[in-house]
Design a protein that fits this description.
- This protein is 38% helix and 25% strand.
- By secondary structure, it is α/β, with parallel strands linked by helices.
- It has three domains: 2-112 and 337-343, 3-Layer(aba) Sandwich (Rossmann fold), CATH 3.40.50.20; 123-135 and 209-302, ATP-grasp fold, B domain (D-amino Acid Aminotransferase, Chain A, domain 1, 2-Layer Sandwich); 140-206, ATP-grasp fold, A domain (Dna Ligase, domain 1, 2-Layer Sandwich), CATH 3.30.1490.
- The protein has a six-stranded mixed sheet. Strands 3-2-1-4-5 form a five-stranded mixed sheet, sandwiched between helices.
- Strand 11 and strand 12 (224-234) form a beta hairpin.
- Helix 5 packs antiparallel against helix 6 and helix 8 crosses helix 9 (188-198).
- It is globular, with a radius of gyration of 20 Å.
- The mean pLDDT is 93.
Amino acid sequence: MTTIVLFGGRSNERHVSVASAQNVARALGNPLCWFWAPGGAVHDVSVAELLAHQRPFERDFDPTRPAIFPDLEQALDTLPVEDPVFFLGLHGGEGEDGTVQAMMERRGIAFTGSGSRASAASFDKGRAKQVLEGKVRLAESRSVAESDEPTVRSTVEWMLERHPKIVLKPLAAGSSRGLFFLEKGGDVDGVVRSVAKLKMPYIVEQFIAGRELTVGVVDNGDGPFALPVIEIVVDRGREFDYAGKYLGSGTQEICPADIPDAMRDAAQQTALAAHQSLGCDGYSRSDVIGAHDGVYFLEINTLPGLTISSLVPQELREAGIDFRTFLETQIDLARQRVIAQAQT
């Protein structure tokens, strides 16, 4: 099978996607690389051009070659190679919410990561919590389907009556864009206006004080297992936002986390339970909080970043798993899944 690294997309996480694709393509050597442009067209990109792109987290990738397909649907209908396996280097939006996965499932095309149903359930933070209710410890939250000011305000005020601090984040998005923290007596008006302007569904969640932890789960062919835990240490007065994650501003990532064994075990068990309960395949990464009364699940990423500085690659290194071996295993698992599906 020919491996095609698909990256880009129309979400606001496309910059991270480009950086992930660079790391994946570099490790695999010479895969085909397809850039899904924000306008929808698909470009065939050389590995050399992809790797030459500088500051991917800040600058848009602009391919030199013209598009080979006007949209992804046509690209999948007129594949130029037989039996491809798509390595999905996409993050956010249609690349992670099950849309692209469903396109490929309908056509019997192999792809890495979770299937469309697990991707859709995991990407929606509120839906994921419903699935995980009773299986892991959860913070109290309420979803806001329509982010108009009155609805957001009423939800925020209700939550602030119950909790001293809350977190507002997009219901289906990642990379810490559009993230707001609010305490009692804080700028409710400002936060409400900011959220309403974004015009997207939100989740308003109880803030859990504790240690910020993240745990990858991978399948090496004989079932999923949890990777070493990373602790995110944020400088005073900062939050773990996009700049902290990808530009190295105001955060430290400690791998393995210097935490009690009981907290480490609970974090790994929580991540593994989330991965399995949501029906994920291949690999995922769960963010959790290690609080005084236990470990709380926050959210799961079915296509977490695979950049040089991303969390899962750090955990793989700590576990002694070669990055290329990890990638090749994911490609093989994708091939096995599509063969098994064809036989049923």
